[in-house]
Specification:
Blueprint (H helix, E strand, L loop, with lengths): L11 E4 L2 E4 L10 H5 L2 E9 L2 E2 L2 H14 L8 H15 L4 E9 L14 E8 L8 H4 L1 E5 L21 H12 L4 E5 L5 E4 L3 E6 L2 E5 L8 H12 L4 E4 L11 E6 L3 E8 L2 E2 L4 H14 L2
Parallel strand pairs: 7-8, 7-14, 11-12
Antiparallel strand pairs: 1-2, 1-6, 3-4, 3-5, 5-6, 8-9, 10-11, 10-13, 13-14, 14-15
Helix pairs in contact: 2-3
Amino acid sequence: MAEAAYDDRDGVIWMNGKLVPWREANVHILTHALHYASSVFEGERAYGGKIFKSREHSERLHNSARLIDFEIPWTVDEIEAAKQEVLAASGLEDAYVRAVAWRGAGPDMGVASARNPVQLAIAAWEWGAYYGDAKMKGAKLDISKWKRPSPETIPSHAKAAGLYMICTMSKHAAEAKGCSDAMMFDYRGYVAEATGANIFFVKDGEVHTPTPDCFLNGITRQTVIGLLNDRQIKVHERHILPEELEGFQQCWLTGTAAEVTPVGQIGDWNFEVGELTRSIAEDYEKLVRA
């Protein structure tokens, strides 16, 4: 059976202050964000009707908007209330929640758009494992030809739509090779992240993860570092060179969609889905449902 397209589903979406029927949650073709990527978003998961770290996500949405030079005209409290309204109206307990804010259509239709109103929408839907059965056997990653850019060229700490263009291209190339995702290096040649998830490695019982100085310091990433600290496992946040990959024994990805997903292969490098990877995935699963 064909999956329902995202514009053709039953339900409601919160849009600019009210719930609207799913199929009517539309924007004009001359919406600024469609032409110039003036859009920021959050991906969140609800477990048992409660969105994990919901407020942190709403705060980051505001911060991302400021980083790309606009202000969201709804407060964090108002966004929190809207998310709960959407979940309740959707009748969903376990759901993926997408909040998105963007510059809409208005008197400006060029690169500059200071006079255009900012819009906000929140949708929720059921979404299973981001990488399918990789949760058990380990995801297979390609290596992207695109690099995470320098913070001098983009607002790298914003969760902004435009920054995902190279991620989409990288993931399409990976899927064409039978991989789940791609690992990206940064502009200096250090290991950075996957296309929508942060990355961790294990060597001799200690954990190594790239310093998030040119990519998003994910909320799940920070949560997992906290779980590792609770277990008194040493975490090295540092620049990681490509030649170090063959020395790592385990690897996993973290993200709201990915949760904690083991990695079995990156390019020609192989990793075991080991005890630490499994136990951190279990710790995370327990925490989000606590």
